[in-house]
């Protein structure tokens, strides 16, 4: 006689079930023995496993097979829709539930939050209060993660204090610390931390990371030292937060110490720590150390490769960044939106027909062409290469346009001298898009400079704060000064310069010297040149303008004095160069006769010149 397996034995099998095939076999036995109808626990376990191992249809059928459904059955059923992002069906299940527990409420609140419907989540949270069911610590931690203002967070904090759950739960305390630091209220975060009945490593991590993000880098490092003194062992997240703090203040010495500690603790191979170390060394102007960390790693992932690519592009080592990108592809590391955005932002330095368009094809292949960050980078790349039509096609095809996308296109038109297109796009933004910001207005003023629309530019400048809510900055004043200088209004330009909070900048200095430095008022030339030397001590331009101005007036002693200062300070002219990309970059310096491969280049030039002469293109 064969004995039927007991429910406890089947429960053990379900607990160790790791494949869909095994689950189907066990579930078939449950149905055969009618246990799905009589044992709700086993039926719920099957439903839970179907939601993880099977398809949606399998899970829905398993739910329908449960005769005596309880609140756990309904919670699992609702979670299935939340996991696939179908929040509408999840809410319908929630509304149809015969009874709800705190897990039911937490699940739907979390579902709304994870799908970007914070307002709906807050409404459900408010409804939970009126339902008579008290929120638990997990409920509060979910809600605190997406509050939109510190005032709302404080209201929830007060509610927690009245219900006695503010400081007794580590989870809630950590959520409060994170919330206050997110809005820059570090003092309140410390208040929560000091009043918590129990703290853990996550509490320290939240405080250290919060101090770092709020700009209190030294405070973050001090809290890390306090954490060590009180006997808490830092984890990978702690180390990465402190490394980020060191990079923020560019403290290479402390960064090296923390990185040495991470190696001692065995975190070197951790991608979070190694990525933070690569970024830290890069921001501390020690990119060679970043490369060393990257090369020493046994295993690469997308986070580590992104950090290395970003570090190289930030130091204008673009060919090396492309090399790392190719290596990551060879190791089957899928690039992210951040990877492609970093490379595209620098691709305009290469030939767009080569690297730029290849990256664009790769973007389409990976399905990132609709991503707003990647699309904005593509717009910027094509615009910098002068291909505004290609940039506009990408812009028009974007579904959701954020302000960065609008700004990229406006700046692209402006920098390519397309004044009319820039102003038309700006009018469209004002009517249908998000409110303009400082960058937007910089693009509009730049377009007015190119189009010599000084009256329109001044109109935009004087109305930008009242009409668009954008406070003028030095960049905007610089644009207006440039307009006036181009129109010959030097006196008005000098009066406008006095409104700049940080004083005249190097760009305006060079602009004045290039337009009026040699033949204009000598006293003004000397003052502007002196200012430029203070801003850029190694600038060759200021000295040479002074030399030319003195030579025109026959002041040879002054010429000799300036040249002596240049010699003493080792001021040299930067040799001009141009480049062309054919299977790599070939750089041609000014007046260079001998060049690697130069014979072939000059032979080709001679042939071209001969063809031009034959076609009578030279008068």
TrEMBL record:
The PPR repeat ranges on this chain: 70-100, 101-135, 200-234, 402-436
Pfam families: E_motif (PF20431), PPR (PF01535), PPR_2 (PF13041)
GO molecular function: RNA binding
Keywords associated with the record: Repeat
Coiled coil residues, start to end: none
InterPro entries: E_motif, PPR_At4g14850-like_plant, PPR_rpt, TPR-like_helical_dom_sf
Gene Ontology process terms (BP): RNA modification
Membrane-spanning intervals of the chain: none
Keyword Repeat annotated: yes
UniProt name for this protein: Pentatricopeptide repeat-containing protein
